[in-house]
Write a structure and sequence with these properties.
Length: 172
C-alpha cells in the first residue's frame, strides 16, 4: 500500500511494509514497522523494532540494546531481495532529531507514535532537500562524479573501472 503525502506539488510516496526493516535479531521482535519514503531519487527506510522475545524463556522479553526495548532507525535504501524491494542499507544511516528509543516494555502505542514522528520529520527533511543524492555519489579522484545507482537496474552497483569510466557490477 502506498500513500502519497502532498506538499504543494511535491510528492513523497510512503509505503508500509510488513517485514522488519533492520536489526540482526528482528525475527524475534514482536513489534516491527518498516516505512519506505520516496521522493525523487531519494529513498529512506524508517524502521522500528521492539519487544524482542527471549528464545530461552517463554513469555519473556529482552532489551534490544542498552536500556531499551524499542528503537527506531532510518537508513538510505538500496535495492535488494530479487531486485524487487528497496530495503535499508544499514551501512548508510540517516540521522534525525526525534526520540528514537523506548525504555519500557509493552509500549507498542508509544512505539507507533515514535515511528510516526520520525517518518514525519524525514518527510519534512525530504521537502527541505535533505537526504539527496550527494550520499549516493562516487568519484574517481580526478574530478569526475557519478551516481552509485545504476540507470539500468536501479541497484547501487556502479563502480569506477578506471579514471573517467564507471560501469554497473551487474549490468556491465
Ligand atoms: Zn545495473
Amino acid at each position: 500500500m502506498s500513500d502519497i503525502v502532498e506538499h504543494g506539488w511535491e510528492i513523497v510516496r510512503r509505503t508500509e511494509r510488513g517485514w522488519p526493516g533492520h536489526f540482526i535479531c528482528a525475527h524475534l521482535c514482536i513489534f516491527h514497522r518498516n516505512t519506505l519514503l520516496e521522493y525523487g531519487e531519494a529513498r529512506i527506510v524508517v524502521s522500528t523494532v521492539g519487544m524482542m522475545r527471549d528464545p530461552l524463556k517463554e513469555g519473556s522479553f529482552q532489551e534490544i540494546g542498552l536500556n531499551r526495548y524499542y528503537e527506531t532507525m532510518a537508513f538510505h535504501a538500496k535495492k535488494c531481495i530479487l531486485d524487487k524491494y528497496w530495503d535499508a542499507d544499514v551501512t548508510r544511516e540517516v540521522n534525525f532529531q526525534s526520540p528514537w528509543y523506548i525504555e519500557e516494555l509493552g509500549a507498542d502505542d508509544k512505539a507507533n507514535d515514535m515511528h510516526e514522528n520520525v517518518v514525519f520529520e524525514i518527510i519534512n527533511g525530504l521537502w527541505e532537500g535533505r537526504y539527496r543524492a550527494e550520499d549516493n555519489i562516487i568519484d574517481d579522484g580526478f574530478g569526475n562524479m557519478w551516481s552509485k545507482t545504476c540507470p539500468e537496474c536501479g541497484k547501487e552497483s556502479m563502480e569506477i573501472v578506471r579514471p573517467g569510466k564507471v560501469q554497473c557490477a551487474y549490468c556491465g
